[in-house]
Amino acid sequence: MPESVLFRGARLVDPASDRDEIADVFVRDGLVARVGPHETPAEALALDCAGLVLAPGLVDLHAHLRQPGREDKETVETGCRAAAAGGYTALAAMANTDPVADNAAVIQEVRALAERAGLCEVHPVGAITRGLAGEELAEFGEMADVGVRVFSDDGRCLPTARQLRMALEYARIFDVVIAEHCEDASLAEGAQMHEGASSATLGLSGAPSQAEEIAVARDLAIVRLTGGRLHLCHLSAAGSVELVRRAKADGLRVTAEVTPHHLTFTDEDLRTYDTNLKVNPPIRSSEDRDALRLGLADGTIDAVATDHAPHAVEEKEAEFDHAPPGTIGLETAMAAVLTELVHPGVLSLTRTIRMMSTVPARILGAAEHGGPVAPGRPANLVCFDPEAEWVVEPSFHSRSRNSAFLGRQLRGRVIHTMLGGELTVSDGKPTR
Ligand SMILES: [Zn+2]
User: Fold this and answer.
1) Which residues surround ligand 1, an ion (CB under 5 A)?
2) Is residue 1's pLDDT more than 70?
């Protein structure tokens, strides 16, 4: 691996330094050394980036890496390779592993596995409640002491307002973020998809949008009460977007994310009974999808997160009502957002990078990520071809292949990813 790399003639899109211009970016000893016209030093690897976009590496707030416990679906290493292939340099690994990441030992184990793989910086998320059981709070202090910044019982919603109140009060004390999977369990029980005309036609039981909206409304009320910092995972319903919009207007400390699959599909796409479109929260109506797009465009929603959720082939090949919910997403997220939002003119490239890198890095406390791309800063970068068209094939770097995007044509492809000055992906291929 050369010690210095020159990205030559790329379109540098860096919201943190307010740049969108053609530039050379020279990287040496793990750091950005120069931004601007640069001769190629003799010892440097020069990458011709004409026509390509160079940006701070992507940051995912929501990935399930499955290790420890379900290494048949994904490991920290394979998940990080998938992340790098998708242009990510940092990600948050959700706590619903086996054992659950509800203590410092599991947090340190996941972090060590990621460091050994060296493909992506992993920030383990700590569980809010012990064993994700929704009862006693986990050891916030112990996990905060080892650097955990985000706490979540993702996969489940905190059962009571009282627990959320305590969690948000702890969040204030330890200066951390509570990330909530908003779902009223009583309304969502037994649901296979969104409740609406499509679920009636398909004969599948549904969960109404209110299952999410009720939980979002409750959570925002508790933010108002405690002043704790809340992040809302994977919004799916128009009503939720409106609740967040009003909460932000009132100055509440809340952020929200949306997934590429909720921005792309509608419940009508489930007519094929494709289990890869069975996700939680469910893919909802076209009105909901349009509200999510608008929420992203007007800044109500802060970030795009993948909710990368690998599952074994045999699980997803089960009958629809037995298949587990989830789609993988790390390798298609950037291309999906480019295809669905940037190329049609809904989102600018600058806003896209802000929502897939700069803002998630700030929420996660990943200080070395999200830009600015400036001299002296760690070289965590992604370089992509915004125009390259490709069809999503079942040949993923993830150990699983349950992608909602299988068979779809996407426009935009990651070419190089650089983590700490080293190429983790070169010419579209992982380097290790
Ligand atoms: Zn979730």
Assistant:
1) 154, 181
2) no
